[in-house]
């Protein structure tokens, strides 16, 4: 019988089984520093601070580097390969994420996490010293490999240190790091590039990374993984097939509709390679002793549902982050200089609601209400954003953004919390990495699909309103910068504003439809009590 359908014992007994396995944290000896119900000791707070710094490094990097791109091209040249500076990092991060999670489960979380920090810092230093675009792309891939381990390591170590019932209190910290990265990234990147040069966009990672490295090395103490049945063997075949499959998927979503037409031979070949690799991966995982992603974790209804909800949250969030600043700059006349600040209503609401959700979850041990309410708010927020037109004020759009942000605040960290609560302790790494991977893939699909819909709609409206000139303007890209807009005749500029409004309407309406799937999944979540001391 599935443990999620079993009657729960009364009081605070910790005898639940989830997906056929004992709860991960409640039944595992905790660090001596973590007496249940006691305040967190200083050593744990130091570790958590170091983990937040590491998470900030991974999330902030692309935001900072994106601002420095024009300067980098001016110095190194290679404009035709510019997109690969971001793509190489994204590919390496996505492909390495599940591998880092599994290595942590097999050989111990601390050593694997420290290795990922060192690799990220090496990649950062080499990127700062790059002499041409090819070197920069290669070094960014090294940096991305380390970044994949940073994200997974943070989530898995928190899963090791903090019982699920107490873990909700730290949701606000993680949401705060995400909000800080999105708001401060463009500001910091622009300031560093202007005053110190683009190379410091990479060098700035070094002092922060060293602080995190030193704190984790000195203070973090975790038990060694129990491998009493002998030395575990790495699933090399599974790792290779999964890496090829993820790489193909990310390339399809990155190149489709931009570098190559969706129906082109290159895209079709990548789709075929991706599907074949993932089918082969599933075949291998059923037969190896230590699979890269144990398929039994998906037997838990809650874990599978959290994977779907996480995918959709990534789909919606990164689509919103892409199109909201574009709408505000093109239609509402906002400055592109402080583009991160344009998202403040959404990110502020996300942070506030995430903190409240975490506290309520810790105090009550209940969490199902948040995926349900979060999905509803996400649908409503996206539908409201789809109603914006050329006359919508910044205050009105800010309110709509806050509704969407509140919905995502209910979902962002709860998905990770419930996923980790649904597996055994020995699978904490793969649970964390799988949830992170689904969210990453969701963001890739969201940007690609919503972007394709946006571009098609903008081009159609420009052809209708501005004729041949409108078609020519948007034939290469449907996104025009502020300088290009300022040079346009008044009639053409108005046509483009209507086109952007139509494009965002279509993109956000699609997001609202997709978000309905998250609501359906949230309704079927089984509220298995979180283990650990209650508030």
Structure notes:
- Helix 2 (83-107) runs antiparallel to helix 3 (109-128).
- Strand 1 and strand 2 form a beta hairpin.
- Mean pLDDT is 81; it is low at 1-39.
- The chain is 71% helix and 1% strand.
- The protein is built from 17 helices and 2 strands.
- It is mainly alpha-helical.
- The protein is globular and about 70 Å long.
- The chain has a two-stranded antiparallel ribbon.
- The longest helix is centred in the last third of the chain and has 47 residues, at 428-474.
In short:
The protein is mainly α. Helices cover 71% and strands 1% of the residues.
Question: Which key terms come to mind for this protein?
Answer:
mainly alpha; globular; 535 residues; disordered N terminus
Topology record:
Layout: E1 17-18, E2 21-22, H1 42-76, H2 83-107, H3 109-128, H4 133-161, H5 164-167, H6 171-195, H7 200-203, H8 205-219, H9 236-255, H10 265-285, H11 301-330, H12 344-364, H13 369-386, H14 394-421, H15 428-474, H16 482-486, H17 490-523
Antiparallel strand pairs: 1-2
Helix pairs in contact: 1-4, 1-6, 1-8, 2-3, 2-4, 2-9, 2-15, 3-4, 3-8, 4-15, 6-12, 9-10, 9-15, 11-14, 11-15, 11-17, 12-14, 13-14, 13-17, 14-15, 15-17
């Amino acid at each position: 019988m599935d443990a999620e359908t079993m009657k729960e014992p009364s009081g605070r007994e910790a005898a639940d089984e989830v997906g056929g396995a004992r709860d991960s944290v409640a039944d595992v000896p905790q660090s001596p520093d973590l007496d249940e119900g006691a305040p967190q000791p200083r050593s744990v707070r130091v570790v958590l601070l170091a983990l937040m710094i590491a998470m900030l490094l991974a999330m902030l990097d692309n935001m900072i580097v994106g601002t420095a791109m024009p300067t980098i091209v001016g110095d190194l040249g290679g404009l035709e390969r510019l997109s690969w500076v971001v793509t190489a990092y994204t590919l390496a991060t996505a492909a390495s994420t599940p591998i880092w999670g599994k290595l942590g489960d097999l050989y111990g979380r601390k050593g694997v996490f420290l290795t990922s920090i060192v690799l990220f810092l090496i990649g950062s230093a080499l990127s700062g010293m790059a002499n041409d675009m090819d070197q920069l792309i290669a070094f960014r891939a090294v940096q991305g490999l380390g970044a994949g381990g940073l994200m997974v390591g943070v989530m898995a170590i928190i899963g090791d240190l903090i019982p699920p019932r107490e873990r909700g209190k730290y949701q606000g910290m993680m949401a705060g790091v995400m909000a800080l990265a999105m708001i401060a990234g463009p500001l910091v990147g622009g300031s560093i590039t202007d005053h110190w040069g683009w190379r410091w966009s990479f060098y700035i990672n070094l002092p922060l990374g060293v602080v995190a490295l030193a704190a984790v090395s000195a203070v973090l103490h975790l038990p060694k993984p129990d491998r009493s049945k002998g030395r575990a063997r790495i699933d090399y075949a599974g790792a290779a097939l999964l890496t090829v499959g993820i790489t193909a998927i990310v390339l399809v979503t990155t190149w489709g509709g931009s570098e190559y037409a969706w129906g082109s031979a290159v895209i079709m070949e990548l789709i075929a390679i991706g599907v074949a690799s993932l089918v082969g991966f599933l075949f291998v995982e059923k037969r190896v002793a230590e699979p890269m992603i144990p398929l039994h974790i998906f037997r838990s209804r809650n874990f599978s549902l959290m994977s779907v909800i996480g995918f959709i949250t990534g789909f919606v969030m990164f689509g919103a982050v892409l199109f909201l600043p574009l709408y505000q700059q093109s239609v509402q006349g906002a400055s592109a200089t402080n583009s991160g600040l344009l998202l403040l209503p959404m990110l502020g609401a996300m942070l506030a609601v995430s903190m409240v959700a975490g506290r309520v979850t810790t105090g009550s041990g209940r969490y199902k209400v948040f995926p349900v309410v979060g999905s509803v708010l996400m649908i409503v927020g996206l539908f409201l954003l789809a109603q914006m037109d050329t006359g919508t004020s910044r205050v009105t759009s800010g309110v709509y953004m806050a509704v969407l942000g509140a919905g995502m605040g209910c979902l962002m960290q709860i998905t990770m919390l419930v996923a980790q609560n649904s597996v055994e302790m020995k699978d904490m790494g793969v649970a964390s990495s799988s949830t992170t991977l689904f969210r990453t893939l969701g963001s890739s699909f969201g940007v690609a699909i919503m972007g394709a819909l946006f571009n098609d709609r903008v081009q159609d409206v420009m052809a209708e309103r501005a004729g041949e000139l409108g078609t020519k303007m948007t034939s290469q890209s449907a996104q025009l910068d502020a300088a290009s807009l300022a040079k346009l005749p008044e009639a053409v500029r108005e046509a483009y504003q209507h086109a952007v409004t139509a494009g965002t309407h279509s993109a956000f309406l699609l997001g609202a439809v997709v978000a309905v799937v998250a609501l359906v999944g949230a309704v079927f979540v089984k509220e298995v009590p979180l283990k650990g001391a209650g508030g």
